[in-house]
Design a protein that fits this description.
heterodimer, A: Recoverin, domain 1, Recoverin, domain 1, B: Na+/H+ antiporter like fold, about 75% helix, disordered N terminus
Chain lengths: ~190, ~850
Amino acid sequence: MKGPICKVYLSQDCTFFTRKEILRLFDRYRDLAPQLVPLDYTGKPAVTLPYELIGSMPELKDNPFRQRIAEVFSENGDGNMTLDDFLDMFSVLSEMAPRDLKAYYAFKIYDFNNDDYICKSDLEKTVNKLTRNELTPEEVNLVCDKVIYEADVDNDGKLSLEDFQHMIIRAPDFLSPYRSSPFSDTVSG
Amino acid sequence: MGQRGGWGQISALSWQQEGVGLEGAGISLAKIVFHLSRKVTSIVPESCLLILLGLGLGGIVLAVAKKAEYQLEPNMFFLFLLPPIVLDSGYFMPSRLFFDNIGAILTYAVVGTLWNSFTTGAALWGLHQAGLMDPGIEAGLMDFLLFGSLISAVDPVAVLAVFEEVHVNETLFIIVFGESLLNDAVTVVLYKVFNSFVELGPARIHATDYVKGVASFFLVSLGGTAVGLLFAFLLALITRFTKRVRIIEPLFVFLLAYVAYLAAEMVSLSSILAVTFCGICCKKYVEANISQKSRTTVKYTMKTLASSSETIIFMFLGISAVDTSKWAWDTALVLGTLFFILLFRAVGVVLQTCVLNRFRLIPLDRIDQVVMSYGGLRGAVAFALVILLDRAKVKAKDYFVATTIVVVFFTVIVQGLTIKPLVTWLKVKRSDHHKPTLNEELHEHAFDHILAAVEDIVGHHGYHYWRDKWEQFDKKYLSQLLMRKSAYRLRDEIWDVYYKLNIRDAISFVDQGGHVLSAAKLALPSMPSRTSMSESSVTNLLRESGSGACLDLQVIDTVRSRRDKEDAAMHHVLRGSLYKPRRRYKASYSRHFISPDKQERQDKEIFRQNMKRRLETFKSTKHNVCSSKSKARLKEKGRKKKNISLTSDTPNGKTHRNVPWQEAAPVLVMVSSEEEESDSSETEREDDEGIVFIARATDEVLQGKTTPGSLDVCPSPCIIPPSPTLAEKELPWKGDQADLAVYVSSETTKIVPVDMQKAWNQSISSLESIASPPGIESGSQHRRFACPVLEEQPQSANQAMSEQSSCFQFPSHISKSGRSQSDSSPDGAEQQELQPLMATEEQGRMVPTTEPRWLMFNRASHL
């Protein structure tokens, strides 16, 4: 029954994934909305999960970035997700995925207004989300100025993807807060 | 070499008779000397120095006594010297880091050790077959495999001793260190299996024996772990019920851990594994159950024992090496062994890392691998094992002993000496403590959230899934079972204590007038004024030195350049208000230093959050209308009041009272006293809420009430030695005081905190009313208080002195001893360890009495 899914997706350019992972992701995806997602995925039906379903997950209740993540990973930017998006999302977690890819997605998540730069308004949003709006506007302003000043190599007042990657290189532990343990895949449920 | 001279004398006097006692003392002295000369220990690891010292000593003994007297007895080593070290490493193991890397550690420990021992043994046998060795060495394949098994295990003692001084990054350290601890099971099994094979003789070994060997590995390792877990459970359970017998808590910790070791040893399971896991697993529950003092005792005793064991081991290694009667030298064997262990360790590490790196996000790079293979030090375990061999069965024992000694010396001395330069030269990522840049801080947080969200959405539960499951289970069942109720709510209590601290700090911020506002808003111009303030005001200094929980904002004062200042301020703001996701903590292990653990860091985090909130509320309430100068004085008044209560038992105490602040700022007094009152009552309220059910805290409150009472009625001799227990409070002579309404209320309000609050407010106001009028009356009589700010310190010293002289009136001698202690020791001693206690310390300072402190020490002496 599930064989076709693997064939479809393994034949694609999803080299980061193993068959098992794809199956598991599909199960997960389907569990979110059993009534929407068909079991037979051979024809690649155009199924999308609405954001409301994802955003209402109890695990995500406290997460300040949930909407933004869904938006970035969904194809049309409205937060609704297809299985492809789901796989994309997983690729960021995957240990096989190169650092650049992760940095790219991180950058995209930060870039709230989709102008390919992290500008001050983006940073302000990030800071506010992170601090749950506890800082005063002046403080946020100061922090953002500082951050840009620190990382802005080309002095254009905003952070490009290059600036961002440069900064990440300087911090070697970056992007690895979760998957630093070996064998984590072997114990994954 | 002063220590060597000293040693010579000791050995000349009574070397023959002296046991371990004197040696231990001497060795410890030597250790002090080593540590005095920073320059030496920065280049040469302590273990090398100790081995060399041991060699020298052994030489002296040999020269004097003509025969080697002492050597490292395997029994002594395994029964007495090794357990403390292993327990220490298990107990203080950064468990999060350890379990994060458990996969790598297990691989290196099991596969690596197996690989090392088989290849080394086989290669040596090949060397022997090729005729390169002395034909006098009668050894077959099994003998060499046996030798390989004992020589290939990385030694925890040696690794710790060297790596501790190298300071490589945490991951690297935990992998090598964890490996050295966990490979014990493999070593023990291999050693025993090969030993029995050698005894049987190669001809009579059947296939089933090999199977048994493999099975016994699982039995030994899992059995050892199980024993450890069992005793950890027992230990946690026992400490749950030691509330009334605090004194024996540390004893239980050591005893049960040791029993775990012995039990595992007795049924020939892996004893090292048993103690390690006992230590790792019991820590959480034990720490929560036992009292703060026991905790400190356990910490220090463990460190002391481990440190001295380690010292003795290395020393004895040196001494035993001199004993030439057990030596039989064969150059080919020695050189071959050295070459092979280095080679195969390196090969093994590279091969395993290749495999492991497929699973790791942060791969172990080439440099890490070099350090790991070079850090495979051999030590006393190998030596003790080789001594244990039976000469009748293993005919080449003498050769093996000599080779082992050389290998141990080579690895500890040569590799130990060179690993530090190597690490520097290779630019191995050290454990760094640099402050993260703002970007890192911000983005790391953001990323934690993002990754967590993604994980949640795609339902990918990795390692964290199981950890979460475990934590749930732990919370639901284990903690309920193993922690006492009060300890189970420990977090809440800590929160309360910090809350109190917050308020205290907030008050002192109010002391500084508008600076609360400016600091919170980060208006940088206020910084200079703050520094100048702190220079001028003694209270500020007092607070700075006295407060254990120093605010970051105060630290900023020491930063010089403006940019740095801004940065730091920014960091503070961000740090203070960042909403933390699930996060990992950096952890480290050191034998000689006790680092603040995760708990404390978390509390600090909470504290920061909390502080921030408090500052906000203070900002909004506009509590600080007066000028900063008057505020500073207010605080000072708090100090003065302490002095007042100190002096109140001297005959003319009343005239001394209140003079300084009265004279300096007569107009401001009324305002500030009101504020003081409200502040302190507020503080006390928190106090009541937080720790109403804890013995010490209630005592404190109680005492706080008796003091004003005693001031009220009989000013001079009637500060009764505080009553620490209920029973004592019932004593008839105590009853004399009970006619005071305030005091009576304290009896009842022990149960009802709200009443207590009122009572406290009452008592405060009564104190105020007593305190102020005489001050106004006799205000200008005492000119020596003319400059209160500067004379603050000498005064209190003076008064403490006079009080000392007049304290004969006190009914019991306990109070005297308690008092003299309270003046000198508590601050320094307690600050080191007891952060939560700091609250009460400071409390004693803020609230206008010192009695709580006497009380605590009286209790101590009662114990």
